[in-house]
Design brief:
There is one protein chain. It is globular and about 65 Å long. With about 400 residues, it is of the alpha/beta class. An 8-stranded mixed sheet has the order 10-9-11-1-12-13-2-14, with helices on both faces. Strands 3, 4, 5, 6, 7 and 8 form a 6-stranded mixed sheet that branches. It starts with a strand and ends with a helix. The protein has helices at about 30-35, 45-50, 85-90, 110-120, 130-145, 170-180, 220-230, 240, 255-270, 280-290, 295-315, 365-370, 385; strands spanning about 5-10, 70-75, 125-130, 150, 155-165, 190-200, 205, 210-215, 230-235, 250, 275-280, 320-325, 340-345, 355-360.
Length: about 400
């Protein structure tokens, strides 16, 4: 048995379009190849783990001859391509239908309920919008009226943006908690997100005190099973929010990639038995959605440097899994997520070097971890026997 498992999600690092990508408008998407084609990608540690050898990439001249890890890619069964859906499926929850989206904004009945519960006179925007653009377009009006900025995106989200000098961050959080209680059932968006911001003269900018309020998973996840069986479950970054705190025994806050690295370093120094589940958010938040190919490639380079240092700290009974939750190809005209396969690089002293090819469900990761600890989750097929020496 591996004593400690470090499950590490590079948010939005997809490795090629899924067969149904056309249904999502994502034909041709490949987040990894977009970064590779930039000419700036330099990730020797992930390459050594098999990243360039994944099925379907056809990087013949670039493949690694002597990999030091097991590797493959996984398809998503759930309907959707968002953070919550991807992370939940990794942890064993497959969604039969996607979370609701609101391409025309939120209906009047919802807006009226929100106004009443939040005690505000109105909202600004109420339509899909870029998060950075919305505060610049509505920030001045928000300062004048005090109306929160209400908006959504192509994902299943309700977002509330407020200037920190108009409403305190704590007040914005209370708004979002109330909104979360309203957004249930047919209006049950995957996440309600608090988006505090400030301004420097006319330039508005988001602060790092964002907070996500997820729906509760519909049934027990890998995290719940581990916690109920007295294993440690350490969350780093937005994992805690994605699972609404369920199944977590220790929370390490992290708002960006650098803080997530520090969180993993803090965890690896602890004597725990169970799972450390980390999300690296910047790939998606700063580079994928902003179509910044060079920024994305550079962030991968920086993560890879960290990875080289991290694996030196791992013990002989540790397991590292590097994966993703969806794609967000920065080279396409779209600024939205893309429906892609996710990579799965599995490293440890007791791990064979094997290509386990293409697997049919993100939950195979969760089931593999569950089997390692003598447990079982609802979905997925374990590949533990394929990778273990």
């Amino acid at each position: 048995m591996f004593k400690r498992v470090f499950l590490t999600v590079l948010d939005s690092f997809g490795v090629g379009e899924l067969p149904d990508a056309k249904d999502y408008g994502d034909q041709g998407s490949n987040t990894f190849l977009a970064c590779l084609k930039s000419g700036k990608l330099n990730v020797p540690n992930m390459k050594k783990m098999g990243l360039y050898n994944l099925d379907g990439l056809n990087l013949q001249e670039n493949t690694e001859k002597n990999c030091n890890a097991s590797y493959g890619k996984l398809a998503e069964v759930s309907k959707g391509k968002d953070t919550t859906t991807g992370h939940w499926e990794i942890a064993g929850v497959v969604l039969d239908k996607p979370f609701p989206t609101f391409p025309n904004g939120f209906p009047t009945e919802i807006v009226d309920k929100l106004k009443k519960e939040l005690g505000v006179g109105g909202f600004l925007c109420n339509k899909p919008y870029s998060g950075t653009k919305v505060i610049n377009d509505y920030g001045e009006e928000h300062l004048k009226t005090g109306y929160p900025i209400l908006y959504t995106s192509a994902d299943s989200v309700l977002q509330l943006a407020c200037h920190e000098n108009v409403y305190s961050v704590e007040k914005l959080y209370s708004f979002c908690e109330k909104a979360r209680r309203i957004m249930q059932g047919e209006y049950g968006v995957g996440r309600v997100i608090a988006r505090p911001f400030l301004n420097n003269n006319k330039e508005f900018y988001r602060t790092e005190r964002r907070h996500d309020y997820s729906l509760l998973p519909p049934y027990l996840t890998l995290l719940d099973e581990l916690k109920e069986n007295n294993f440690d479950v350490i969350s780093v970054g937005k994992i805690y929010d994605i699972f609404a705190g369920n199944g977590i025994t220790q929370k390490i806050d992290a708002k960006n990639n650098e803080q997530s690295k520090q969180g993993m370093l803090k965890a690896v120094k602890q004597n725990f038995k169970g799972l450390c589940f980390t999300n690296f958010v910047d790939f998606d938040m700063l580079y994928g959605h902003r179509n910044d190919v060079l920024g994305y490639a550079n962030a991968l380079n920086e993560f890879d440097l960290f990875l080289g240092d991290f694996i030196k700290l791992m013990g002989k009974d540790d397991l590292l899994i590097v994966t993703a939750d969806h794609g967000c190809d920065p080279s396409t005209p779209s600024t939205d997520h893309s429906r892609e396969y996710i990579p799965c690089l599995v490293y440890g002293d007791k791990v064979k070097s094997v290509n386990f090819h293409t697997r049919n469900c993100f939950s195979d990761i969760g089931q593999t971890i569950a089997e390692n600890f003598g447990l079982k989750i609802k979905n997925g097929n374990s590949f533990l026997n394929l990778i273990k020496k």
